[in-house]
Input
Amino acid sequence: MKLRLLKLGTCLASLALIVTALNVNTACMMFVHQPELPDAAKKLRKF
Output
């Protein structure tokens, strides 16, 4: 049981990192709202 929870947690953490990296490198299509990103997320920028 613990092994399954550990694997699930690892997969969830890597998915969260990928989603955050994609969010940092894209901009909002609408000019109305672009939310501010945390400083830790800005370190994942590619440019």
